[in-house]
Structure formats: C-alpha cells, structure tokens
C-alpha cells in the first residue's frame, strides 16, 4: 500500500487534470511546509518518567494561518500527521475558510493515562510547540481522542508561556475559556447538512433510508442521533470494540445513553431496555462496512475501505465523516460499482468551520448565540456543497475530484497572488 501522504497526493494528481494550475503552485502543494517531531517527557503517577513522541505539521499557509486538530492515538506517526495536514489544507480551501492546513498528534493510548498524566502531557506538548504555533501562525483543535478539556489545558499553557491570555491559539476549548457554542456538535451537524443537501439530488428521502455508521465518537454518535431524529433508519453503529445491527433500526438515544454509561455500544446488546425491546445482532467493524444499507458513514479512522474490501461494499452512498477512510485504490473500485463517495474534505468540514467561528469570536471578544453559530454553519455547508455538486455536474467528474478542483482553484489563486515569495516566513 502507498504511504498515506502518497495516497493523498493521488487525489491532487487526479484533480489537476480538470483545472489549470501554474506549475509553481503544484510543486508547492506536493510537500508540507514544515514538520516538527518532539519528545515530551512526562512524570507519571507512579513516579517514573515516560517520554512520548509528538508531531505537528504545517502543510500550507498560502490562505492564512494553518489550522488542524491534534490526535492522541497509539498509531499516530509522521506520515499520518502529514496526510491529515494535507487534507486540512484542502478542507479549509474547499469551504473558503481563511486558513491553511496543519495537524498534530501524540503517539499514545489515552485510555491508559490518568487525568493528571494527560494534563502533563498536553501541557508538555505545548511547551515543545510554543514557537511553532500561535493565533496568527498555527491553531490546534480537537481530533480523535482529544476534547475541550485538553484544548483548555493547551490554551492555558500557551497563555502561561506568553504571559497573557491568548484564547485564539486553540479552538474547541471549554465555553468558559472562550470556546464557541456549537463547536462540539459542529462536525456532526455539518455532515448532516451535507447529507440533507445531497441525498434529495439522488432521489433519496430520509424516511426509509437505512444508515450504518462506523465510529461512535463525537462525530459518529451525534450524527447518528441527528439522522435518527430526522427520520432515517440507523440500522448499525460501532465503536472500536465492535458494533450492533438491527434491521428494524436502532433507538439511537438509548444507544448513546448506554455508551455513555458503559463506554461500549455492544453493551446495549446484552443490557438495558433497548436490548429487550428489539432484536440486535453483533457485527464487527469490518462487517458493518459491508452491510446492505443505503448510506454508509465511516466516522472512525483512515484506511477502512481499501483495495482489499472495496468490492464487498454494498451501500450506494458513502459519506466520509472520518478523515481518509477510503484509499485512492478503493475509490477506483467503488466508482466502477457506481458507488458515490462524498469526500471527507466536504463532509466533515463542519468542525473546522465552527473552529473558524470560535477564532473570530476570540479575536473580536464578542460571542454569538447557538442559533447564530448553527445558522452560519448551515449556510456555509449548504453553499459549498451546492458549489461542489455543480462542479461535479459541469465537468462530469466524481464529487471527490470536484471538491479538490474547487479547493485547488482557491489555493492556486492565493499562491499566485504571493508572487515570487522565496523567504521562509514562520
Ligand atoms: N480535527 C478536525 C478536522 O479534522 C477539526 C480541525 C479544527 O477544528 O481545526 O477537521
């Protein structure tokens, strides 16, 4: 298999066939602007010292300060962080958000650390990165297994180092520390708006549409509930432990309740009222992807649908809520089968969109109501979804390529406008 970054670059190559971009811009976009690897020493609760590996990659800043989440996961490595930073660059451009792309991560299993150890690690990460980030340089945010609490510690640590409160250096913070209302549900809500905009174009109404969702974290669980409430039939959900399936549809609020109480969606199967009310079966994460449903939503990690299982996928519509769940080889197989893939850089862009709103609120010191945040999110998601749809129709190309074409033209314009800049600017 290709490295993740090489695979990500394949999407760029394909889009370049449909849009005229100067050679300089193409060359610039092939490589990350800067990649930093750091070692973070942490004093553990038992008195021992453990050193963790952390990364931050700033891919491209032609359109503004770089932006992207920080993930805490055992499989985090530089190649993964570089590809995620690449996707952030195209995501921000596709949504016309005035940011470039970045990403960060620490290699660890966060479930094995105490709260105090996690705090030391988060603060240590910012100590190591303090010269690399800033509200007008690079702005971290939550990603897989990071949340508002961790973002609060990071913002606080940066403010301690700078000797002043700088809320705009990190987004996804607790509301009490300058976070935005609606940020926590933004990725799911953004995906929901994209689904609601596109499915009618395929002649698919919510009622009777069956959905399977892989991943029951911040994005997957909230989206499952939004779809359930809008009348979709969510028949399968899973978390890292495995999943549950019920052909008559799952009662998602109960599944969420059980997940919150037990930390596992499979617990629903053998405990509690839902289990007694309807019949479930247990599915693995791999089986969930191959279910006969109308809409498949990978909302966990990258590389889930590859050349090895793409031919087994039956859902006609895949909405990528995770970053990079479908490889470029799998894309080709799915296209041959007539399966529509709605790309990550559009579908999951609600998170960074509200991060942008949070940053704007931090800069102005004036805070918006939840209704205002959600309305602006809906306007943005709907407008850019329609634009990408129109590009796909005009050029007779798939939606992923259309999203890249759309993003590339904005990136090329910014790179072109910089003229012959050669200096390295932090
Ligand atoms: N981690 C999220 C993403 O992949 C959000 C990034 C942000 O808000 O900056 O889009």
- Average per-residue pLDDT, rounded, comes to 93
CATH class descriptor of the largest domain: Alpha Beta
- What shape does the CA trace take? globular
Radius of gyration: 21 Å
Oligomerization status of the protein chains:
single chain
Number of domains: 2
Extract low-pLDDT stretches. 272-277
Percent in strands: 15-25%
Instruction: State the CATH topology of the largest domain.
Output: Rossmann fold
Give a short account of the largest sheet.
7 strands, mixed
User: What is the percent of helical residues?
Assistant: 40-55%
- Series of H and E elements: HHEEEHEHEHHEHEEHHHEHEEHEHHHH
Quickly count the helices.
16
Which molecules are bound in this entry?
glutamic acid
CATH superfamily of the largest domain: NAD(P)-binding Rossmann-like Domain
Strand tally is 12
Supply the helix-strand structural class.
alpha/beta
């Amino acid at each position: 298999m290709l490295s993740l970054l090489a695979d990500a670059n394949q999407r760029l190559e394909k889009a370049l066939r449909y849009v005229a971009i100067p050679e300089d811009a193409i060359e610039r976009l092939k490589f990350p602007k800067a990649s930093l690897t750091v070692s973070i020493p942490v004093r553990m609760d038992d008195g021992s010292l453990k050193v963790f590996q952390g990364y931050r990659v700033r891919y491209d800043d032609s359109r503004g300060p770089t932006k992207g989440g920080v993930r805490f996961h055992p499989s985090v490595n530089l190649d993964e962080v570089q590809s995620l930073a690449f996707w952030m660059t195209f995501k921000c451009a596709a949504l016309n958000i005035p940011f470039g792309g970045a990403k960060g991560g620490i290699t660890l299993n966060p479930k094995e650390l105490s709260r105090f150890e996690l705090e030391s690690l988060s603060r240590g990460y910012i100590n190591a990165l303090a010269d690399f980030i800033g509200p007008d340089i690079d702005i971290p945010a939550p990603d897989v297994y990071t949340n508002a609490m961790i973002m609060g510690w990071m913002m606080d640590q940066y403010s301690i180092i700078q000797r002043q409160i700088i809320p705009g250096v990190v987004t996804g913070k607790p509301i009490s520390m300058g976070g935005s209302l609606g940020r926590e549900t933004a990725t799911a809500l953004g995906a929901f708006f994209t689904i609601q905009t596109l499915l009618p174009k395929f002649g698919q109404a919510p009622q009777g549409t069956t959905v399977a969702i892989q991943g029951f974290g911040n994005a997957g669980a909230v989206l499952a509930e939004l779809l359930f409430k809008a009348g979709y039939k969510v028949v399968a959900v899973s978390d890292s432990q495995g999943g549950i399936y019920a052909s008559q549809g799952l009662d998602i609020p109960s599944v969420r309740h059980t997940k919150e109480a037990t930390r596992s969606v499979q617990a629903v199967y053998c405990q509690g009222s839902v289990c007694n009310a309807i019949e479930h079966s247990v599915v693995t994460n791999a089986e969930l992807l191959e279910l006969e449903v109308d809409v498949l939503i990978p909302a966990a990690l990258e590389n889930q649908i590859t050349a090895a299982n793409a031919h087994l996928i039956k859902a006609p519509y895949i909405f990528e809520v995770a970053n990079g769940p479908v490889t470029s080889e799998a894309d080709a197989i799915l296209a041959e089968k007539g399966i529509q893939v709605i790309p990550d850089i559009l579908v999951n862009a609600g998170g960074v969109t509200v991060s942008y709103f949070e940053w704007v609120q931090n800069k102005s010191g004036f805070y918006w109501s939840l209704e205002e945040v959600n309305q602006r999110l809906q306007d943005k998601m709907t407008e850019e979804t329609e634009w990408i749809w129109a590009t796909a129709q005009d050029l007779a190309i798939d939606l992923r390529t259309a999203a890249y074409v759309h993003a590339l033209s904005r990136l090329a314009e910014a790179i072109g406008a910089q003229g012959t800049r050669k200096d390295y600017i932090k």
